[in-house]
Amino acid sequence: MANNAGGGAPADSTFVLREVLNRCLSGVAMAIFYDPSVVRLCADAGINITLPVRLGGKHGQTSGDPVDLKVTVRGHAKDLTQRFGGGEMGMGEAVWLETNGIDLIVNDNRTQCFSPDAFERLGCKLVDRKIVVVKSQHHFYAGFAPIAKHVIYCATPGTLTPDATTVPYTNRKGLWWPKDDNPWIDL
Description:
Blueprint: H1 15-22, E1 28-34, H2 36-45, E2 50-55, E3 67-84, E4 87-99, E5 102-107, H3 117-120, E6 131-134, H4 141-144
Parallel strand pairs: 1-5, 1-6
Antiparallel strand pairs: 2-3, 3-4, 4-5
């Protein structure tokens, strides 16, 4: 949720990816990472080429640190789109990368993940995945809920954190909810 491009976040957050790697999970698919330099590098390398990349974490502290990975390019498309309602939303140029049983969709047009199309139009079939992580607030639900056993919302650090108590406000003074349980105590 906190790295949702639809709300203005950079969409290059690495917090969940790091946790997936730290837990040695596999069968995981994640989308969409906004990282134009990785897209260009991998598109130029070609399908089934393995190479080192530094993914995400390039747009500020709310993105986390970049993650160094050895990836294999599994898919590539220019002018990729994904369905959203009755229309098509542009994703730009995108690559499907695989590393240690983790599938990553990376693009060069900062957008959120609305539909399984973001994966499957690159060839990444979600039926083969145990966990699918999408960077979206709620717009993903119509596309993913019908194919998901469970939908779990994840609160992570980032630009759009759902925990307002962690936002470092500089001009907000006094008591306010949700930071304070009872902001009316002094009224």
